[in-house]
Write a structure and sequence with these properties.
Elements (H helix, E strand, L loop, with lengths): L9 E6 L6 E7 L8 E5 L2 E2 L3 H12 L4 E9 L1 H11 L5 E9 L2 E2 L5 E2 L5 H5 L5
Parallel strand pairs: 3-5, 4-5, 5-6
Antiparallel strand pairs: 1-2, 7-8
Helix pairs in contact: 1-2
C-alpha cells in the first residue's frame, strides 16, 4: 500500500544441508530489471550463500541497486555475503536488525531462532 506501483517478485532459494550451497527452486521475476532498485527480504543471514546468490541473480537481470533486509545474521554470513557481492558493479546495501554470536558446525546461527523455512511453513518442532 505504501508503494502501489511496486512490482513483487519471488526467488525461492534453500541451502543444501550437506554442501551448505544455495539452490534455486522457484523464480518469478521480470526478465529485465535494468536500472531498477530491488529489495530482498531474507529472515536470517546464516552462511550468506542464499542471500549472495539472490543478489547475483538480480545483478544478472540488470538491477542497479539492491537493498537486503534481514532480521538476524551471523558475523560469518555477513562477511561471506560481502565477498559474494563486492565485484558485481552495483550498489548493494545490507540492513540487519541483530547479529548473533556465530555459526555452528551445521551452518546454523547460534543462538539463533531455528530454521526460518521450517517456521514459515509450519514444520518447526
Amino acid at each position: 500500500r505504501l508503494i502501489p506501483s511496486a512490482e513483487v517478485g519471488f526467488v525461492g532459494m534453500a541451502r543444501d544441508e550437506e554442501t551448505l550451497q544455495p539452490m534455486t527452486y522457484a523464480e518469478r521475476l521480470p526478465s529485465d530489471l535494468s536500472g531498477r532498485q530491488c529489495f530482498v527480504l531474507d529472515p536470517m543471514l546464516a552462511t550468506g550463500g542464499s542471500l549472495g546468490g539472490a543478489v547475483q541473480f538480480l545483478a544478472k537481470r540488470g538491477a542497479k541497486h539492491v537493498v537486503c533486509l534481514c532480521i538476524l545474521a551471523a558475523p560469518e554470513g555477513i562477511e561471506r555475503f560481502r565477498s559474494l557481492v563486492e565485484d558485481l558493479g552495483m550498489q548493494c546495501t545490507l540492513v540487519v536488525a541483530g547479529v548473533d554470536e556465530k555459526l555452528n558446525e551445521k551452518g546454523y546461527i547460534v543462538p539463533g531462532l531455528g530454521d526460518a523455512g521450517d517456521r514459515l511453513y509450519g514444520l518447526a518442532e
